[in-house]
Amino acid sequence: MAQVGRGMKGKKITFNVAKNCIRITFDGKRRLDLSKMGLTTFPKCILRLNDVDELDLSRNMIRKIPESISKFQNLRWLDLHSNYIDKLPESIGQMTTLLYLNISNNKLTTNGLPVELNQLKNIRTVNLGLNHLDSVPTTLGALKELHEVGLNDNLLKTIPANISKLPKLKKLNTKRNPFPDTEQSTSFIDSIKRMENLYLVDAKDLCGPCLRKCQLARENLNKMKSMVLPGPRKAIFPNLVSPNSMAKDSNEDWR
Question: Where in the cell (predicted)?
Answer without folding.
Answer: Cytoplasm
